[in-house]
Amino acid sequence: MGNFIAFAGLLMMGLMILSQLPICRGFISSTITRNYLSSTTASCTQSPTPTPTPTPTPPLIYTSSCSMIPPSSSWPPLQSLRADLRDAGLYRWPPHVNLLYPFVPPQKFPQVSHLLSSKLKSFKPFRVQFNTFETFGTDKRGVLWLKPTYPDTPTETLTTLQSILSSTLPYCTHQLKNGVFTPHMTVSHFSSESAALSAGEEIEFEGVDFLVDRVYLMSRNGAGGQFKVGAEVVFGEEEPMLHIEPKAFEGMPEEEFEWVAVERKELQQRRKRKQRRKNS
């Protein structure tokens, strides 16, 4: 044991002497440095797990809509009713029920319509009737509208349809008020809800009854433009019907009558006053 301890002591002294020589000091130092850098580089070159980039939400605009539109055969009584009540939207809007509004820009119609087609492949056409008036509004504004009923189905079919659409495009939820969708076909706008209610009580309207077999993706150019069809999603079809050139609706006015322009501008002013009151 004594000899071993003595040998170990001599070995340590020898290493200490060698470490003082320049050539050995450089070798030892470079070896230590190289080993340190190798271990550091290995730990630094391990790529961190990338954070997934969220899919951006498309902008929504008020000159675009996904709507239920009656067939042209049901338009005459509806358009006559709207004209009699001096509807400010008569030139711009077809008779419609907004399902998703505001909606994506028309440049997104091809992509979005394919998504909606895939979700409506098994959705069945259904009958709907509009013959009952209801109102929205306050003492500052009023809307007279037609309420849908469904003679062949026990469910609120337009509500079911809207739920499918909004779940497919979950960023389009503006038609839900406190989480509830109220399908309505606007007839005209008034200065107050009481004025809208009075107008509804004086009207004789037999109503319309038609089959719904598709939804329309439509848009217009600017505040005074007229809505035209960019795509049609037909229930049960694999592919949507795309219109490279927006398609005009049959039965729409060819020009904006002077009284329509006046009513439209007055409606815009009422909305601006409402917004100012909300912001004040």
From TrEMBL:
Gene3D superfamilies: Cyclic phosphodiesterase. It comes from the Eukaryota. Keywords: Signal. Pfam families: 2_5_RNA_ligase2. Residues 1-26 form the signal peptide. This is LigT-like protein.
